[in-house]
UniProtKB/TrEMBL annotation:
Protein name as it appears in the record: Uncharacterized protein
Keyword vocabulary terms for this entry: Membrane, Transmembrane, Transmembrane helix
Highest rank taxon of the organism: Eukaryota
Source organism of the structure: Mycena indigotica
PANTHER family: TRANSCRIPTION FACTOR DOMAIN-CONTAINING PROTEIN
Length: 403
């Protein structure tokens, strides 16, 4: 065995060598920073009141570990989506940024105020989110009196924590680029981590002004007058087709919401907006977010394809990696083009019809999800036999000026 080889449980023998633990720990911590710290969920529903003292033990346990954790469960949904399909979360962040910009310009408020409206942060006295244009017009004076500092006080993260997480990802990218410049190989796990770091750097920038993990909304006035939504309202596409269950959002509607579409509007009477809701003004919003999502999907695929000629432990693993890497870019582009006209980037997916669109999205999911699973499992399997060169660390002395 080559003397440069390090045991998986051992420590580095020289300064320019790293251990198995260094490789795995660096990748896992970076992925965690990418998918957890960057997740900015909408305002969660209020926690139900605790059960009475004479309630059963099961009721107390359910309230403490399930009902009370509703905010955490919402964040886990965003994290899971960001781990499986990070380009969809970038598209979601882009849509919220566009609507926040629109609110900021129209009502002369800060970008943070615009995000807070889009995430269901302002409610009336009946705890109905103010996301329709009629409601916002009615309460805009009260909204303007809420300072940006008061909104940010409800955020569980600040610019410092976001900067630390962003620097963690950027430092990992720098290390990978340095390894390539010094002709040192990247493990498959490092390639996957590099893809996450590249995409979530975009995600952090899109959501930079969005408050993080807000647990309670801000009440800004009396109950909004009851006005039926119209085509000129801020809605998540009030299109009346597809499965519709009053009082409960169907699985199909939740799936469409993740893609940036929605088929029902009952949630305006709920105490919180859905997890992937974004207030949308159909004439002006979403001009660029589909394009951003498409470019990010291409970037995510390209980073994986960069390992096209890497050393794989078997021919089967090599072709699984190659085919899955291509699917990461092809499938999202097809799905995005289905509901975008490719020129103005506005919604045209309804022209395909409900059944046709559903079939296309179902087929896309059937191809995309296995491809993501392959690219999650293969890097872990490849750790069973790393090459000697993979344990060599970057020689940073080469970049220091010599006297």
């Amino acid at each position: 065995m080559n003397s440069l080889h390090l045991r998986s449980t051992g420590s580095a023998l020289e300064n320019n060598q790293r251990s198995f633990f260094d490789i795995v720990w660096g990748c896992f911590t970076t992925i965690f920073a990418c998918v957890w710290v960057s997740a900015h969920p909408n305002v969660s529903p209020p926690v139900p009141p605790p059960p009475p003292k004479d309630a059963s033990l099961w009721q107390h346990l359910r309230w403490r570990f399930f009902d009370k954790s509703i905010g955490l469960r919402r964040r886990l949904k965003v994290v899971l989506a960001a781990f499986i399909a990070p380009e969809l979360i970038v598209g979601f962040a882009g849509r919220q940024l566009e609507t926040a910009w629109y609110f900021s310009r129209k009502y002369d408020i800060s970008l943070t105020h615009g995000f807070f409206i889009s995430m269901g942060g302002f409610v009336d006295n009946d705890r109905h989110p103010l996301v329709q244009s009629s409601d916002i017009d009615q309460h805009i004076d009260a909204i303007r009196h809420i300072s940006e500092e008061e909104i940010l006080d409800r955020s569980q993260g600040d610019a410092f924590s976001k900067t630390v997480a962003l620097l963690q990802a950027l430092w990992f990218v720098v290390q990978c680029l340095a390894r390539l410049q010094q002709h040192l190989p990247l493990t498959e796990l490092e390639v996957v981590t590099l893809a996450f770091a590249s995409i979530n750097a975009v995600n952090w920038l899109l959501w930079w002004s969005k408050p993080l993990d807000v647990r309670a909304p801000i009440r800004v006035g009396p109950t909004a007058r009851a006005i039926e939504p119209s085509g000129r309202e801020f809605v998540a596409l009030d299109i009346e087709w597809g499965p519709h269950v009053k009082g409960k959002r169907s699985f199909v509607d939740k799936f469409y919401s993740l893609l940036g579409m929605s088929t029902q509007r009952d949630y305006f009477n709920d105490p919180a907006v859905p997890t992937f809701f974004f207030a949308s003004y159909m004439d002006d919003a979403e001009k660029y977010s589909p394009l951003i999502a498409m470019l990010v999907a291409a970037l995510f695929s390209a980073v994986h394809c960069a390992a096209w000629r890497s050393h794989f432990l078997s021919v089967a693993e090599m072709w699984l990696w190659r085919v899955s890497s291509l699917l990461l870019g092809v499938v999202p582009m097809i799905v995005l083009l289905v509901y975008s006209d490719g020129v103005t980037w506005t919604f045209t997916w309804i022209a395909y019809g409900y059944k046709t669109a559903l079939i296309i999205y179902a087929l896309g999911s059937a191809l995309y999800i296995p491809a993501r699973a392959v690219l999650i499992v293969l890097p872990l399997i490849a750790l069973r036999d790393l090459s000697d060169a993979a344990y060599l660390d970057v020689d940073w002395n080469k970049y220091l000026p010599h006297v």
